[in-house]
# Entry
Amino acid sequence: MKRFLTYAALAALALALSSCAKSRLEQMQLAKDVNIQCTPEVLEIKAGKIPATVTVTCPKGYFHPKATMDVTPVLVYEGGEIEGKLLQYQGDKVKDNYKVVSSAGATVTEKLTFAYKPGCEKSHLELRGVVHYKDKDYPIDAIKVADGCLATYMLADMDGVYEPKPDGYQPILYRTTEGRILYDVNSDRVDQEQFETNSMVNYKNSLEYLKEDERTTIKGTQIVAYASPEGGKEYNAKLSDKRAGTAQKALDKVAADVEFTGTEVKSIGQDWEGFQEAVSKSNIEDKDLILRVLSMYSDPAVRESEIRNLSQIYSEINKKVFPALRRARLVTSTEFRNYNDEELLKMADEKGLDRFDEPSILRLAAIADTPESKETLYKFAISKFNSDTARYNLAMLYLDQGKTSLGGAYLSKIKEPDAEVLNATGVVAMRNDDYELAADCFEKAGSISKENETLMAIRRGDYEAAASAAKGLKGDNAAIAKLLSGDVQGAADALEGDGARTDYLRAVVAARQGHTAEARKWLDSACAKDGALRERAEKDIEFAALAN
# Structure
């Protein structure tokens, strides 16, 4: 009898254990008293990824010591699903390599990442689990843990900010024509032969031609007289004044029938500046010694004395340098009315491109009506003038077309990159996700790259850095950076203008501030200006409250 009772007791114990196991598994299936939290509660797309941190707290007695569990995070949206990595757990007594969840109670934290797919802006995150025990599966009902997904960063101008260079074409060309009179030593008399020199003949002919040119207006003339730096400062000042007077009479003779808006007379006196330039360009053997004297002494008298002491050199200076400094210059300024766009196009059509200068070719490219025409003209300017402006603007054309590699290739051929070139090179690097190179280029480019620095931080998903870079900036990208960092009022302050995207962002700001009516007003305005925004708004979780 005792043996029978023993067997009965064993049977009862086995039944009790079996019942306990079943109850434990049912509890796991129901996930009763399991606390699940997700950060953030509303998911957000960052740099093409959707990050989430899920924390699960299991109560004591929840996880069966001999069970395992598979959990699949799934982002569910209309038209599809995105599965996250499989998460696997085991009880205390399972000998495997999964993460152990103690039956005494445990908290498990998992960092999840989903790759963005179009359409998942309006979605939710759920956990799907299966418990495995003794070769049997016990599915757990899907548990919703978060809504998703904010896609506000996608409103930023992802292509980067850059501008073409000006073509340099001027509607008015300011030019000068010049004649030169040479004097004998210590003389202010203009010899007749001076009117027959190439300089004065060309000057007179130029004035005659310009007088008849309907596009040219002759303006004022400046008479500038000099004396070579020999003979004393005061003496040369007086001599220079006299030469200015005789040069004015010479002007009256060669331009008797030319009307000037005014004549300015200047007397320079000793021409040390011209002397230094002439010596620098000469082939005088010891010219470095002369230049050193000029750098050592500023007093004209000391300079002249020291140079005279160089007796052999002074003789050569007297022959090769001083004669050209005993002079007066007649400098007439003119204004040329350049060709307008219509005239340029007509000339290009009738006469071809070979007669155009670089700014004219660049102007034709700027006003060309097709990308193909622009490309042809920029390549012509590169070929004929080795134009870096054309290289840069061709690169901008390629960037506009999404031909980033081609744009980068032309930028790399610019030997002396300025801030604009560095900024554009940074845009190319940013588009290629080479953020280290992009950051270096933007830093060297300085203030013109601040908006691109902001955009780069947004693209990386570093919203604090984006807000920092956007400090002091205005516009949509700056406002987006502020929104993403949580500075809603800063975003409102940064917005300016009345574009469709700007109005959309104003609607986002109003929605976050809880101003439902204002949000609807700005959203209606944005959608009326751009129909594509209406489709976006239907899925935008920023406006979830507006649907209520």
Q: What stands out?
A: The domain at 351-547 is CATH 1.25.40.10 (Serine Threonine Protein Phosphatase 5, Tetratricopeptide repeat).
